[in-house]
Amino acid sequence: MATTATRSKPSTRSTAKSRRGSGAVRGSGGGSFAGESPELLQDYFHEMTLIRRFEERAAQGYTQAKIGGYCHLNLGEEATVVGLMRALRKTDLLFTNYREHGYAIAKGIEPGRVMAELYGRTTGTSKGWGGSMHMFDVESGLLGGYGIVGGQIPLATGAALAIDYRSGDQVVMCQMGDGTTNIGAFHESLNIAALWNLPVVFVVINNQLGMGTTVDKSSAEPELFKRASAYKMPGERVDGNDVLAVRDAATRLVEQARNGGGPALLECVSERLKGHSVVDPAKYRSEESVERAKQADPIANFRAQLIEAGVLDEDTAAEIERKAQAEADAAVAFADDSPHPDPSTLFDYTYATPVANDSRRLPADPVF
Ligand SMILES: Cc1ncc(C[n+]2csc(CCOP(=O)(O)OP(=O)(O)O)c2C)c(N)n1
Ligand SMILES: [Mg+2]
């Protein structure tokens, strides 16, 4: 393989200062936001709120039978989603599990196209054939959307190998849940990524539950970032409810990977606000656990902190919330007005090259 342990490229990193923008919050009134651009902070608040409203509308669409199949929401993980995506360039590649609606929006896909995919319409990211778990959009760098737990990890590692092989300057981010770190492919992929010094950042969204199983019941070492040490790569744990902490940690590790520093493992700890999927009432959860999740709500807390720091006032916050609601509603209207795929196209996207829908044929057989 044409990979070496020393990828070394000129630094193309945008500095933390330039990411934070100009006109930064100053002095003691800014609290923990000192040095941050108020516009950018409001932008984070808007995007997190948009994802929340979008997911609420998705849940509603599911109960109205507008959305079929499985449907897993990012409720409670919005700070992690926005913080991670702000560390990536548009050209960087993202692989996720099935809980990816918020990532699609934060990576730059129009909310209407994301909702249309949930509604199974031709205007969706995967022309309506993928649904909730299989969004794909080359232009914005979202390379799926995977329903097999851990299925995205070897693919993301392979994409990082392709980038390295071509001496590209992109970075791959591979998102996964806490439950996924016990899949064999997790260990195989981290091992090879470290051996070959590949530009990939593995991100574990530790929402402390894999369906109904808590982390401490499924992982002998519940501090998941520590697994990085087995593969000689940096491992970090960050508060996934803190959008700035996530952004800063992810930016550091992404730029390290971009500049030849190799892979890393980032663990973002947050809470799942609702069930595993829309149809899961989460009866296995204790009242304390539900209450703890509510208290940790990243949006409510960020809103209060921004108001306290003088970055937002009540009116501006309410205006941003109205805007986010209107955008989520517009996404639903766009999806509802979009056409269903023609049934004759059902087998069009099964294989990269056309293969007749005939069980006696194999993919390598001649088509005609
Ligand atoms: C290989 C495989 N095994 C089992 C499942 C069923 N399954 C779907 S999601 C899930 C839990 C994964 O939990 P986690 O990785 O923590 O992600 P989260 O749902 O919390 O985002 C399981 C076991 C599956 N989809 N694929
Ligand atoms: Mg989980």
Can you describe this structure?
With 368 residues, the protein is an alpha/beta fold. The protein has a single domain, classed as Thiamin diphosphate (ThDP)-binding fold, Pyr/PP domains (Rossmann fold). The chain has twelve helices and eight strands. Helix 2 (38-63) crosses helix 3 (78-85), helix 3 (78-85) packs parallel to helix 9 and helix 6 packs parallel to helix 7 (184-195). Thiamine diphosphate binds at residues 97, 99, 147-149, 177-180, 205, 207, 209-211, 276.
What secondary-structure arrangement, pairings included, does this model have?
Blueprint lengths: L15 H5 L17 H26 L14 H8 L7 E4 L4 H6 L4 H8 L23 E4 L6 H14 L6 E6 L6 H12 L4 E7 L2 E2 L2 E2 H4 L16 E5 L3 H16 L5 E6 L17 H9 L2 H11 L5 H24 L31
Parallel strand pairs: 1-2, 1-3, 3-4, 4-8, 7-8
Antiparallel strand pairs: 5-6
Helix pairs in contact: 2-3, 2-11, 2-12, 3-9, 5-12, 6-7
Bound molecules: thiamine diphosphate and magnesium ion.
Please give a handful of descriptors for the protein shown:
alpha/beta; Rossmann fold; globular; disordered N terminus; binds thiamine diphosphate; binds magnesium ion; Pyruvate dehydrogenase E1 component subunit alpha; oxidoreductase; THDP-binding
